[in-house]
Design goal:
Layout lengths: L1 H8 L4 H29 L2 H19 L3 H29 L5 H29 L4 H20 L9
Helix pairs in contact: 2-4, 3-4, 3-6
């Protein structure tokens, strides 16, 4: 659906699409080590929250985007993926006992796969039957849920157990 939206709705050429899709892994490679260092300096909570806020900005750039906006949005997606994945992994390491990490990672993967199957199905239906922009705009509201959960429930001042 993402590629379809970029090419059909935003009228971005196939060549421009290749540049956009290259921006994601390129930005992740460039930002991987600096993001890890940033997490060591500022903690885990702020990068996770920054990633959720970046996601809302990305959607706003993307929905009414042109080539440059979508390119920037994809670079921001790379940044937020590196920030959130690194910070969440680091947070889990400190919160979950070593003997339970496999179960926690397996459970997390299970629920991520459920969301990964429901998201495209519901997004595709909304894209076809409601509006091409609605599946993307809904994400702005949905991202507020984990943002608030992290804000209220994660206390980095607590001593990590593991």
């Amino acid at each position: 659906m993402l590629t379809l939206y970029i090419v059909k709705d935003l009228a971005i050429t196939e060549l421009q699409l290749s540049y956009i899709m290259t921006a994601l892994p390129a930005s992740m490679i460039i930002l991987a080590i600096p993001s890890g260092k940033l997490i060591d300096v500022v903690g885990k909570k702020k990068p996770i929250m920054a990633a959720f806020i970046l996601w809302a900005i990305v959607i706003a750039l993307f929905v009414k985007g042109d080539f440059l906006r979508v390119l920037i949005a994809m670079m921001l997606v790379g940044a937020l993926m590196v920030l959130s994945n690194s910070a969440i992994s680091s947070l889990q390491t400190g919160l979950v006992p070593k003997e339970h990490r496999g179960k926690v990672n397996g459970g997390q993967g299970f629920f991520r796969l459920i969301a990964s199957s429901i998201g495209p199905l519901s997004g595709g239906w909304l894209y076809d039957n409601v509006s091409h922009e609605v599946p993307f705009l809904i994400q702005i509201g949905l991202v507020m849920i984990p943002l608030l959960m992290v804000y209220f429930w994660i206390d980095e001042n607590e001593e990590t157990l593991y």
